[in-house]
Amino acid sequence: MTAQTERTHIDIVGATARERGLQRGEALRATLAGAYAKYAELFRAVGVSGANERDGVARVVAAVEAWRPELIEELEGVAEASGVPFEAVVALNARTEIIALGSHGSSECSTVTAQISGHRLAVQTWDWHIELDPFWHTQTVTGQGLRYAGLTEQGILSKIGVNEAGLALHFNILGHEADGPDGIPMHLLSHVVLTECSSVDEAIALVRSAPIGSSSAFTMLDGARAVSLEITPVGVFEIDEVAGSVQRTNHFQTEEPLAHQKSALYEPDSSERLALVRERLAGGLPESSTELVRLLLSGEGQPPLTCVPDMTLSFGDRWATLATVVTDPDARTIRIFDGMPPEAEHGEWRVLQA
Length: 354
Known about the structure:
Layout: E1 9-14, H1 17-27, H2 32-45, H3 50-67, H4 69-82, H5 86-93, H6 95-99, E2 110-116, E3 119-129, E4 136-143, E5 148-153, E6 160-163, E7 168-173, H7 186-196, H8 200-209, E8 216-221, E9 226-232, E10 235-240, E11 245-248, H9 255-258, H10 263-266, H11 269-281, H12 289-294, E12 319-328, E13 333-337, H13 341-344, E14 350-353
Parallel strand pairs: 1-4
Antiparallel strand pairs: 2-3, 2-11, 3-12, 4-5, 5-6, 6-7, 7-8, 8-9, 9-10, 12-13, 13-14
Helix pairs in contact: 1-4, 3-4, 3-5, 4-5
């Protein structure tokens, strides 16, 4: 993987959505076309045709224009400055929704929050396709609304982050039979939450107000509360912390969406990962951020909390932990390690301040 010191970082500062889009497109001009080409290859690998992709993009644009038209202006700016077609930029931001049009299995992300010395922290392993490792970066975003810092992919406005009000957001994909592109893409919703919401309660209210067409979990925390929000086309469901912690993998934990889950996508892997984390927490909460990260270590024969790619498999099946992330909403910081938890123990972390 790319060394931490070589990973791109961008600072986006703009008073308008268009200005921020132009800055993002210019900063990523050298790599954005390559990121889309690799995603287009992934879409085809999971059974999404070019025609289905174009239709999905059109449906996403219609939903976003009706809810937050300034997001379209920002994506248009990204396209203009990067020289990448607008439809490709939308497809990147809607990659979760477009992938949902196909069929694929995966070993995905794990997230845990914990109260440590009176503060809430969270850790996440971001597991994704090893072939997409060159196409992510860290960022700070300043403009209309709250400033935030985080990790995202080329051309995608947001993913994992923390804002200056002390709200942190982590991201796990879920799968429901009703998923499709007729709503706000989850990566754009993350951006809106981080720029508009000062607390978990405000974020929940905003998500409930948004038109939703796909499924993901936003695990969010501030100084007062931690929750994992299951966001689906059939409703939004809250999983509150129990005994000082929330744990999230990639299956539904509430009955209504679980009844229509696309279980083949993430099971039994997801349930096994969750069980391992909860077994470890049964001995007590971690007492430091280092111990928090250790919750997501996994050894040979254990469920893949740490995901090592099997390079004998084909593109679409080579899952890797691309980054390890710790958020501290009280300190307004996000710590990002370019790699897996075992390496993070003694490696160099990038620390960003919102």
